[in-house]
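We modelled the chain as a single entity of 300 amino acids. Its sequence is:
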Amino acid sequence: MTKILIIGLGSIGLKHHQILKKINKKFKIKVLSKNKIKNIDYIEKKKILEFNPNYIIISNHTSRHIKYLNFINNHFKRVKILVEKPLFHKPIKFKIKNYNKVFVGYNLRYHPVVDKLKKLIKKNKFYYSSLTCFSFLPKWRNNIHYSLSNSAQKKYGGGVLTELSHEIDLIDYLFNIKKIHSSFNSKISQLKINTDDFLNLNTFCNKVKFCNLNVNFFDNLKERKIKIVGKDYSYEADILNNLIKVHNNKNFITKKIKVKAINTYEKLHKSILNNKYRNICDLKQGQKILKIIFEIKQNG
């Protein structure tokens, strides 16, 4: 029997619970959280060992990830653990033991546009890439004022750099980041938050010579795109609209590829449950992204 423990029941923890129930209603799912919601099967920490889960999702505050990860690592063997991104609130040395497996929840790796794009660029190198992710934080959640959310509070690991670190992971996943060229990360809007809301990042990568990332969460004009420019081909990928434009630079021909939308979290969970780890962000990769995040924080 698949026994699943979810630690933390904020909006993302609840999403994990709903998706896992959808995948298989027979999964035995317990939740460790102070946040009480109807029709959820809760568990006390002292009874976790007795429950003995084989799949654990850590989706509480980022600052508490290491506490529960150490507890699991010390008390369980051969358990699969999914930690919500980012891995920790600061760089921390952590080593897996007892044959456990740790993954980080960068689910956009499973987006059909990203999957198709990775296959398209596989055989070639490119000059330049730019990624954009623009959104409006006050519209993220309906059940809480945005200024009270974890995303708006520094003490809970909020801010655009950590909340939208998906894009940093995508750069590394698609192009393999070698080093940071420059960055600017700050609060520049009038949002009622005490965290950063803007990031501009420039990196050198193995797959492209130079990559630029522009991210914010004060923009009402939502956008999430990846542009890649090469000698023979260029690509424009629109993640929100499930569309890729392929430009043949020699003949100036543009082809549109429409892909079917999927639930990226569902695919992530199925991959872990079925031992198909090829595209998942593992512990080593998650630590690399965390190191990049804190290098950006130091640069300001």
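As a brief sanity check on the tokenised model: Residues 241 and 258 are 9 Å apart (CA to CA). The two ends are 48 Å apart (CA to CA).
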